[in-house]
Fold:
Amino acid sequence: MDAAKSRARGRGLGIIDLSIGSSDLNPPEAVLDTLRAATHDPATYRYPLFSDTLPLRDAAAAYLHRRFGVSLNADTEVLPLIGAQEGLAHLLLAVTDPQDTLLLPDPCYPPYFGAAAVAGLNVVTLPLLPERGFLPDLSAVPNHVRPRVLLLNYPNNPTSAVADAAFFREAAAWCRARGTLLIHDHPYAELTFGDYHAPSALEAGAEGVVELHSLSKTHHMGGFRVGFAAGDAGAIAALARVKGAVDFHPYLGIQRAAALALSLPSEVCRAGAAVFQERRDALLPALREIGWEVQTPQASMYAWARVPHLTDSVAFAVRAAEETGVAVSPGRAFGRLGEGFVRFALVQPPEVLREAAARLGGLS
Ligand SMILES: Cc1ncc(COP(=O)(O)O)c(C=O)c1O
Structure:
């Protein structure tokens, strides 16, 4: 893709990069002020101890209660993370043994494959198919498959699919019946459109469930590297032991900024989400106008579209970058079942997204 983008530049084409899912919005100003003030406070310069993380743990527990009606103990059921990605890799190390089975959706966020490999896990994939709204069919998992962990993510990257509270109740019950830990990766919890509000898997109870939250998308703080894990006390304690050998929690100033972000009124997150909704509403009609088949997402910062002309997704993405300067992610990068699709990240203003669709429309 990089080489294709360079060739497009060489031909004088401006690049419209829709391939990377990093929010281009700024964090709330009050969050930045909190961080700036913290850098002037010498109390933030030392190693943060577990006890120093209490304000962020309290803010995370209060957020989960306010937003999802979930009551957790901030001492035993919540742990700050250096981002959800860090949290997932360490959580898998903490709760599994090598050769344990991990049930992983296909397609999925690509770092899941690496986290599974680092933990030495045996991956069994769970198909996410368009005809099932990209929700897995757990009843199709053979009885002899006894996974240590089931990993889910809704609102979903890359498909933008959403799941309701009943789905999480069923998934949690399925996991409890098998002694499987349900890990729900939830970085798009607040990136939802219109009247749609994403539920938490923790609404099905914290026992046997861990949810990973991130401020990267909800508060546009991807570079800050901060999030939190919440749920099953045994799994959280195991994660804390592994992290204790690896890191010292996020910088205290970032913890203060994150705690403030989590306590802001919900309208702050809604305003950011509305920007992505406006982009969705610009891109989708423009794609349909050039003959693309694409569902309207209710959440996330992506559009998952079928590649036209049955071309394979990598060949299409390379050709699109080279000939039109529009960079998208090939579906194959997200797993075998991602083939046939490409992912558009809604990380440009509406007029640029319309321009991207117009350029793609010129591809023969
Ligand atoms: C599903 C999913 N999980 C985790 C992450 C990374 O989150 P964080 O920035 O908190 O590590 C992303 C980022 O794109 C994602 O899409």
